Amino acid sequence: MKMQADPWKCLLIVVCTWMWMIAPACTQLSAEAKKAEHVKRGQAYLAEGKYREALIEYKNVVQLDPKDAQAHYQLALIHMKLGGVSDLQAAFGELAKTVELDPSLHEAQLKLSEFYLLARNPEKARKHAEIVLASTPHDPQGHLLRGRSLVIEKEFEKGIQELKTAIELDPDNLQVYIDLARAYLGLKKPDQAEAALQKALSRNPRAVEVLIALGDLKVLTRQYEQAEATYKKAVTIDPANEALYMKLAGFYQALRQWKKAEDTYRQLVQQKPHDAMAHVWLGDFYKLTGQRDKALASYQKAVQLDPHSSTAQEKLIIFYLDAGNLAEAESRIQAILDKDKNDLMGQTLQARVHVMKGDIDTGILLLQRVLKEEPRLALAHHYLGVAFAARQDLKQAAQELTQAIQLAPNLIEARNVLAMVRLAEGSPDLAIEQAQIAFQLNPRNLQAVRILAEAYAQKGEIGKAKQIYEAIVKQLPNDAPSHYRLGLIAQRDKRYDTAIKHFEQALSSNPNFVQALSQLASIYLAQGKATEARERVLQQINRVPANPYLYNLLGGLWMQAQQADKAEQAFKKAIALNEAVQVSYMNLAELYRRTNRIDEAIAEYQKALEKNPKLISAHMMLGMIAEQRKEYEIAKHHYKATLEINPTFAPAANNLAWILLEEGGNLDVALSYAQQAREQQPQDPHIADTLGWIYYKKGAYLKAAALLREAADKLKNNPMVLYHLGMAQLKKGETEQAKQTLKAALQLSDSFPEADETRQILKEL
After folding, report:
1. What is the CATH number of the domain that holds 736?
2. At what angle do helices 292-305 and 276-288 cross, to 10 degrees?
């Protein structure tokens, strides 16, 4: 029997089938609706200038539709408006995706071409410009970009033709005239370059960007008066444009017209009295020219006007750090980190504080963490270079400082430090290169000038070094370091009266300049005037009675006069004034050794420890005496006791390192002690010698030589130090220098502990 269809069931089947067919369409409609809503919200945020919010909306759009070229293009535009380094990288990626999806989007092609030009990749820039020109041959922007790419490739004639075509198509685009002028300069045709700029000004006489280009051209052709007039005209036309004041002030600085430069910055401040950045720029000028009080006042005013300005806060903090005012700097750094513990600049500045306090490892760790987040932060590379230099890791220091100046070529302080690192490496030519650039950036950069002179002296070009020091004292008659260097040069040439004059001038400017006094005494001794030498030292002690190094110098003179009691009195006075000074103990121990009063000294110091077990001076002397007797376990006991009392006591750490080295102990432990000592007293040559010799034993000859050169420069009469330096030079392959150094060691003493080995090495060489 034939069954009859149930009409209700049939209807249900039809409805279900229809629903199944339209379900994807409904889903599609839903996705399109969501996308449209995100686009609508994104456009609204853009209209309000809320770029971060707009960014999120358009990211949602491309998530819903990854092939929407317009959405990718909008993302690129938003990233470009945000302008950070990571944003610009993201913008480039979005533009590349845009043209991949839709090559007909000419605006995206042209912007991608601009990115390639900025990256100095003219071939790819021209490729994208030509894609546009293939379909729209009269696009002026396409011709402009193709012209720029050709000029970068030094195809000046072809580039000029493209730029002229761009001008014909869009004669009101004044930037093209500026590009054309630059192309003519590439052909060394300044007259035609000026003609191009004048043509632009005929279309708009008030175009300040063209006036600035014309002023730059006048500077290149050394027409300085016309350049000044042109820059000033631009300022008059647009007095609210701070960039024009900066240009004019920079022009004056390049010509060393400091008063006019200051007046220009002050004019900007008067024009914008409530603008924090105007005060920051004025402060930068005062800092550059060494007017530190005025610089501080300007930075403080900037922060007062805008407490939320990160630039103003950073400038003020860096000023305090440079001045050694750690307390003020730390409080401001902490305020930044309290608001945002991840603030990269706050962490960078905090790291510098750690390094300045001697906590170098913590500083390095912090800076490496910052650079992992933002590898292009030049200041972090700079401070990391300084930290590695403080740790005597010269190779790493040079790498970081080089990276800093690649990212920020005008970072003068980084160039100064890099020049000093090159000097320490024994690379005077590289030091000269950096010092010269630093000086060009700031002709008032005294540190760069001194490095330059030191580098010439290291090369043996004494005449050039002398000229530089004479130029310094002509400008700064009371500059003690330059007078000291001139004294050394005169002493070297046996012009003793001139040398004495310079050393006295150095002491007049800086009464604590012990090296100058020591050289004076050595001249008197060489002339057979031992009494005059002691009297001159006593005269200086009367001027600065709290300086332990003066008493050490006096004690040495009494030892030469074989006046042991007076020498002992002087050395003990030095220890009483500052018990952390290593050389005082060494001198006193040497005195006891020479006078054979060692048992007497031991008994005296043991009595002192019975009264005060934490008397560092007693522990140190007992350690020194035991070390001289090669009673190393006793010596280590007293040095360790000293470090238990004061963990940062450099002399004890240094001597412990030396004993481990002499005993053939663990070099890594010895290195740890020596580095600890170095962090506390980075200028002590004995510590530099210990650390350098440890690096020698570990096979790090570059580090060793740099440290041992530093020690030898300060301990010129110590044959052991010269022996250490000579051995390091030999391992570095500097055979001739090593021979000279080892010969100098034997000339000082033919019986120092390594004299026989030195003679054998010289014989083999």
Report:
1. 1.25.40.10
2. 170
